[in-house]
Amino acid sequence: MWKDSNDKIAELYFNLQKIEKFPAECSICKEQGGHIYMHIYDEKTRRGGIWIWCSECHSFFHGSMRVPKYWINCSDIVLEKLSAIPTYLDEIKDKIDQHTMSVVKKCINRVT
Known about the structure:
By secondary structure, the protein is α+β, with helices and mostly antiparallel strands. The protein has helices spanning 11-14, 87-91, 93-111, and strands at residues 24-25, 32-42, 47-54, 60-66. It has one domain (7-111). The longest helix has 19 residues, at 93-111. The chain is globular and about 35 Å long.
């Protein structure tokens, strides 16, 4: 069962550009099960959602946000399957991890 009870998992987002690979170390259970995905619902305002979850301890965070300008949506996402609980995202976590690393690497390369 998924546990939306510990915002400590949000530390993954704040360290996103320092993470070298996904799945990343979960800030709660310390296992390599941490994942991040953001999705833009409105390109004009950049309004969207964020999911941070651990496949190992099933802790997660979900919220609304203004998605960073560098982010692009993953084309593999079926919008109708997205929900606050990351069950669907966990089913496709390998694709999500590849996408997140690709976007983050492009962002870092632009800065350096």
